[in-house]
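As practice, study what follows.
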Amino acid sequence: MGSMRSKLSTLWLFATVNYLYCDVVSLMDPALLKQYVAGTINGMVVSQGFLLGAGVLVEIPMAMIVMSRILGPTAVRWSSLVAASLMTIVQAASLFVKAPAAYYVFFSVIEIGTTAAIVLLAWRWTAQKAVRTQSSEVAA
C-alpha cells in the first residue's frame, strides 16, 4: 500500500468515515432522534460545552488524515500513537455508558479495530525507520 504515512492517513480516513456514518445511522434511530430533539441523550444534557467537546473529539481523527501526510515521520508516529490510543479508549469506554444498539456495537468494533491497528503500525514504525523515511523523502 505504499509508505507508512500513506497507510496511516488511509486508516485515519477509514476510521473517520465510520465515526461519521455511525452518527448518521444514529439519526435514523427513532428513540435517539427524540432525545436529540429534546436536548438530552440518555440523561446527559446536550449543552454547548458538550457539543464543543464532541466537535474536538471528532476533529482528532479528521486532523490526523492530513497530519499523517504533512508532518515529519517522527511527529506522525508519535501523534498517531497518542491520537489513536485516545480514540481507542474513548470508543471502548462509550460501549459501557449504556447498553448500546447493535449498529453502534458494529461500528465500534470497526472503529476500535482501526485505531488499534494505527497504534500497532505506529508502534512498529520505530523512530529509526521514521528518521530513515524522513531522510529519503528529503533526498527525493
About this structure: The chain has one domain: 4-139. The chain has a mean pLDDT of 91.
